[in-house]
Amino acid sequence: MDMDLELRVKNTREYSRLEVLLKHIAVVLSGLDSRVNKQHKIEKNNKKLPPTLPAVMQVITMSKEKFNTIMENIKHAKENTGKILNKTDVAFLNRHMTVYICLAQGQSAGAAKNMQVREFNAAFHGERVSHINGDYIIIFVANQKTADTHDCRNALSPYWITAFDLYYRYVRTIIASQKQVTNPYFFTQYDGNHYKNAERL
């Protein structure tokens, strides 16, 4: 209030004081900007680069043998539909399958994390895309960050169609039944909760 009164009577000294104060604030802000930019450059230079495609394929190839073994065990034990895989195997399947979606197909974490059961079923029971290596299915994932600009599509080859179908029928469905799962998402943890760790890959 006092400052306002002094300015109203055209107090030259008060104007000068405020002018100096504003310049001082500008210098402080400039210094903060410089520090922030410097810190940003340091973090950017030290940030771990994303894996290259050969590195991704190497990881998938190394874990594929274990993945195939678990899938074979599911095939042989599928008559006993009341049995859930152990916690370790369920976690491994979730990681391996989401790695394939996110890294091998170059998708965001949301493409795996937000994929829903109804979206898989729509693709599985819908029209298939012919390819030299067999018929593919295309899963459209609606709930993801870029939905406003372009579609998110997860393409599954015959090998992966079988794997996803086995996971759905004899892992996800059994967990949903015994743990009373209410979420609509495809990938589910052993305890029945939504598997959200795709962004940690």
Write structural notes for this entry.
It contains 7 helices and 2 strands; from the N terminus they run ααααααββα. A two-stranded antiparallel sheet has the order 1-2. It starts with a helix and ends in a 22-residue tail after the last helix. It is elongated. It is mostly helical. Helix content is 60%, strand content 4%. The protein has helices at 2-8, 12-46, 53-77, 87-104, 109-113, 117-124, 158-179; strands spanning 137-140, 153-156.
Major sheet size, sense and barrel closure? 2 strands, antiparallel
Strand order of the largest sheet: 1-2
CATH architectural type of the largest domain: Orthogonal Bundle
Q: In percent, how much strand structure appears in the residues? A: under 5%
Number of domains: 2
In whole angstroms, the N-to-C terminal distance is 58 Å
Class from secondary-structure proportions: mainly alpha
- What is the arithmetic mean of pLDDT? 79
So what's the CATH class of the largest domain? Mainly Alpha
The dominant shape is elongated
Helix content: 55-70%
Task: Indicate the topology.
Elements: H1 2-8, H2 12-46, H3 53-77, H4 87-104, H5 109-113, H6 117-124, E1 137-140, E2 153-156, H7 158-179
Antiparallel strand pairs: 1-2
Helix pairs in contact: 3-4
Question: Which features characterize this protein?
Answer:
7 helices, two-stranded antiparallel ribbon, 2 domains, elongated, mainly alpha, hpI Integrase, Chain A
